[in-house]
Known about the structure:
Blueprint: E1 8-12, H1 17-29, E2 34-37, H2 45-48, E3 59-62, E4 65-68, H3 70-80, H4 91-106, H5 109-114, H6 127-137, H7 143-166, H8 184-198, H9 214-233, E5 238-239, H10 242-250, E6 274-279, E7 288-295, E8 299-306, E9 309-316, E10 320-324
Parallel strand pairs: 1-2, 2-5, 4-9
Antiparallel strand pairs: 1-3, 3-4, 6-7, 6-10, 7-8, 8-9
Amino acid sequence: MSGANNNIVLYHYSFxxxxxxxxxxxxxxxxxxxxxxxxxxxxxxxxxxxGVNYRRIPILAIGRDIYCDTRIILRKLEQFxxxxxxxxxxxxxxxxxxxxxxxxIEAGLFNRASQLIPSDMPLLKDPKFVxxxxxxxxxxxxxxxxxxxxxxxxxxxRSAFNLLExxxxxxxxDWVLKTQKxxxxxxxxxxxxxxxxxxxxxxxxxxxxxxQYPKVFAWIKRFNSVLRDAKAQAPKPASLKGDVAxxxxxxxxxxxxxxxxxxxxxxxxxxxxxxxxxPTDSGTxxxxxxxxxxxxxxxxxxxxxxxxxxxxxxxxxxxxxxxxIPAGGKARL
Length: 333
């Protein structure tokens, strides 16, 4: 792939658990990229300057194609960098990988894990952060609300630890798919458990520790050891300011040519229809509006105008809603 840093610009902030999925993948693959660091809360003028209203982190641009949501980002990186990709070519292993993705994201495991954030964290004393997370998740982030949800969330997370301990890792394998090194299936599975393990006060150690789940904690430790070695050998990402990142993106070519709209899609939308797209689980108040240029079983592609240039925004189909905009209508941003 031509272009500085493979034409990749990753927008993220350092402690985002979702962003780490992408950073880990890029490091394990040794893929060169550039990053544009963002604030953990809105506003994010660097992203707004691109004309993107989607509020979640990370987003990843490859040329003038911008990928929203880590599920589609990982899928595209596998596609565009096929040499020694981390995903399996075995259909049964692909199914395990996909089910792990669904389990941790779409089935709500991360939502429960996030309810284990300790209510005495310094960040939760910052009204700006609390308001931002309430906008993101549409649920209260007060100390009382967090403490009330904690027991039920802990029960769900303990069950998840037990599932891995007693099934996929029960036979003592090093990696989820019995491979010689971590694969995409390990990333799909480990990210929540690693995040909780590193979040002081999230897990009560008398209930969730190496004593109760030795195989899971050994796997987390193994993964981090391999990751440290990979990061030491991988290219260090170039750090870009927002204006430089935007210039690089807007001055690039599209990575993907000629997306198309499936004429058999149940929504019956036509190419070029004015639509708005937004996530249905979190960040639901932030909608992007543009022309529909791509629609398939797995993907939505939206064309928007930014600083006189066309950009394509890509979203996974699952977890996102797409609606036609009536003539003269406006997007709900």
